[in-house]
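Q: What would this chain look like folded?
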Amino acid sequence: MAEKFKKVAEGKVSFKTAAIKEDWKNAQEKAFHKLATKVKVDGFRPGKYPESMLRGKIDPNKIFDEAINQILPLLYGKAIREADVQPYGQPAITVTKLSDEELEVEFTVSVMPSVKLGEYKGLTAKKEAPSVSDKEVEERIQNQLKGAATLEVVDREAKMGDTVVIDFEGYVDGKAFEGGKADNYALELGSHSFVPGFEEALVGVKTGEKKDVRITFPENYVKELASKDALFKCKVHEIKERKIPELNDEAVKDLGIAGVETVEALKEKNKADILAAKVNDAERAYFSAILDQIVAGAKIEIADEIVAGEAKEQEENMKKRIESQGLTFEQYLEITGEKIEDFRKKLADDCRKNLTEFFVLQTIGRNEKLTATDEDVDAEIAKMAENYKMKPEEIKKAIEPQLDQLKSNITNRKIQEFILANNK
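A: My prediction, written as structure tokens:
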């Protein structure tokens, strides 16, 4: 049985358990017979070797190793039940006693964080009452019109806001560098998509003109180019001016917004959309403020290994995203000027905060019996079917691999709705 249960660190426990003598003997016998099938003895047919001869040919330590591997799942399952713990992740295993007659093992494992809640109902926090100004509506409309703008070729000098179509090749110390060349590249002047100084240097160029652009790469650029002087040889093919439609009913129709065909309708639609976004932001900020109070009043211990595991997974995912954009993780750190130790500390801090909030919310959900029912899932699938113009059965089949995630999302939403309804 499990003995000497003890806490060894925050969110981590260890406990020893001894195998029942008969079980340990049986495990050794099974291990011996399994290893015996791999032994060959000259003069004997496979499976017909005398046991005494086989025992002399099999290392006793290998028998112990195999027997331990066989009996460990049984020991661990029994031990965590007797110790009444919920493990989180795989245990570290230490054999503390080992002989033909006995086996004792110590398991050290991170445990599911135990949360002791404080108050989570009747709390108060400030919630904004959003409003929308005419200026905000006008700015949104202008952005929509800019998005519908066309580019027209012009025969004049380039100015800020124009798009120039260019060939370019960059040189450092007289040598072309990797990634510094492109043909027929459309660059909007003033977009700040190139290194400082490059776009400004192209103001005033004309179609067909060749121009040398000299810049200095920033200090926080990729290591190979940081702080270095560079020369870009450019050739201008075209200069295009952005033509923004004039605001009228025809332009509104061209935007293709369902149910919106007049300037007035566009203003009303934008006002409603901006207000809805602000209401959502206010609701999120309010919920976050309430959650901060709930977390502050709760007591929770999370093992460092749990935080480290989550941080490592997030770091790996981030590396993959960065590499998909053509950069190495090291280059990303060089560009941002962030040290790896600072990056990892911030990531670990964020993970600990997020995990703390997650476990606190899950505990509230269990206390209040908030979970996704079959009816909740069916209602969500019906809503999705209506949105996608499909049958509920088709949606259910399509999302079957993500069904657990859907249930989790519904449960989390119910927990959030409960908190919003029970606080001021």
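The mean pLDDT is 90.
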